[in-house]
Amino acid sequence: MLGVYKRYPFPVPFRTKFFNVIRYFFTYPVLERFLVAQLAGGNSKWWPKFIPPVYFYQHGSVRKAKRDTILYDLDISKLIDHSLYFFSIQDKAWTNLFKVIKPEFYIVDAGANIGFLSMNLAKLCPQGFIYSFEPDSENFGYLQRNKNNNHFTNIHLFKTALGEKTGKAELYKMYDNNPGANRILSSQPNQNIASETIEIAVLDEFKKNGAIKKINLLKIDVEGFEPFVLKGAKEIIETWRPILFIELAEVNLRQQGYTARKLIELVESFNYSVEDARTMQPIDRDFDNHHTDILCFPKSDNSI
């Protein structure tokens, strides 16, 4: 058991380690299934305290699980899979996002990961369509599996990143337990980090060649690369005026030579209002440590 802390990149407090002794028993299949059943029932505030942490699981600890009628293949050694499996995936921003979705929406999911949002959006948009972009090979494999598990016919998958220019880039895999943090970096990191060469496409090109017919919502969560996705979608934003749902993370943006304020100003330059997706209040452009999502709505005047 003590060996799990060696492969986890962050310090674990002694108090957590003490209670982890109890949590470890719930990694045994019978007790794990019992715990999941209790969590599914939602009958007690205590059961979540027994959830084994993500670093207790070896890579490839795959479980099949149905959540909100959607069937997933989940590797619970990964953060989002683990949260989904143990019913701890909660985000006020996503709740507010779902409220603006209409059944006929056409949506781009840039940074689809294993497809949690793509699958939920496909369910919410039976008369619409989801275009899911995910460059990481392992994530994309799970994205395919999860689409096939549910026989969705209104999702199209693209194994590519999106950016301002077409080409290739290195996708750095920052943390083994969190492939959602994989990212393109402006310079090679000093430490030895695994990477994968990926393709970058420009979203406007999909409009020009007819692969994408329209977009009502553009969701972008690409670990600091968001400004370049937006710049590569300028024609789409000008023409179709989609709602924008974008991760706003100061630390990630600074790795690209950007800031949250500059990203907000870029969105505003398209004549959009910008709201914090968790509070639905106007975003504070002067705050210097944003880590949230923004919901951006086109203003009535369509001029850019």
UniProtKB/TrEMBL annotation:
Transmembrane segments: none annotated. Residues 109-273 form the Methyltransferase FkbM domain. Keywords: Methyltransferase, Transferase. GO terms for molecular function: methyltransferase activity. The keyword Methyltransferase applies. This is FkbM family methyltransferase. The keyword Chaperone does not apply. InterPro entries: FkbM_mtfrase, SAM-dependent_MTase, SAM-dependent_MTases_sf. GO terms for biological process: methylation. It comes from the Bacteria. It comes from Ohtaekwangia kribbensis. NCBIfam families: fkbM_fam (TIGR01444). It holds the Pfam family Methyltransf_21.
